[in-house]
């Protein structure tokens, strides 16, 4: 996707040099997990309460992160952690990247690793524990990215007693069309394995994209379009066989020089928006979001501030 104007990123999880896929080529279709990414990224990130982030670069490959949350609906408290990569060459990862954070009061912990042993192969793993007395959740991913196809293996809490795994394949059959599928394996005991399949198709131009995935469990359809160099709009529709219900959502994003506005409205009578801005001449970004459900008359309002004295935001 090409555009004459590219807005700055705000509130990215990792600095830009940790987000690179060294093998990413124009002909590679991406992965099934990112199939509806263009439409989904326009949905506002709703914040409940007050959130403050602080990032500081200790060296070119070491970053300190802290987070403080005050909320009624989300786990409140203070977290601190960091991101570390030993070897980098021209923004290409030569050694694994390790990221971790912890909440000292609840001992909620997240540890992850990302590694490209060769440019076309990605390994990723995450360990999460919500509290000291709760079980440990582990996920892993192995992905091959070739010139025209992507193969991904995802593992979720895999053991002999229970677990979940997916294998997906996506291939570019032309410059605009990509087709693929996914196999889901899920088991609750060693003798019982449930399998399900899903199929995916996408048509994409430089200024719009249509994507659809279908399985026995439901259907997901998305449409994304760039109406203007600074204005994007997307529509998503999802239907679940288990509930026999469907939800349609319309989202938009309007970019400015140092800020953006996101908004959404869905068929469940929920309407919301988010405004995020980088403050001039200060290493601070701020965001405000509001979500209102017109059916239940409930709302969610939040503020988020990100302080980055080392200038990580300026590199986005």
Automatic annotation (TrEMBL):
Q: Which gene is annotated as encoding this protein in its UniProt record?
A: LOC119639027
The taxonomy runs: Eukaryota, Metazoa, Ecdysozoa, Arthropoda, Hexapoda
Lineage: superkingdom: Eukaryota
A Gene Ontology term for the protein's cellular component: mitochondrial outer membrane
Pfam families recorded: Porin_3
Main subcellular localisation: mitochondrion
Residues annotated as signal peptide? none
Query: Which controlled-vocabulary keywords does the entry list?
Result: Membrane, Mitochondrion, Mitochondrion outer membrane, Protein transport, Transmembrane, Transmembrane beta strand, Transport
Q: Which GO terms describe its molecular function?
A: protein transmembrane transporter activity
Q: Which InterPro entries match?
A: Porin_dom_sf, Porin_Euk/Tom40, Tom40
The name under which this protein is listed is Mitochondrial import receptor subunit TOM40B-like
GO terms under biological process = protein import into mitochondrial matrix
Family that this chain belongs to? Belongs to the Tom40 family.
Q: Where in the cell is it found?
A: Mitochondrion outer membrane
For whether the record's keyword set contains Transmembrane, the answer is yes
- State the membrane topology: Multi-pass membrane protein
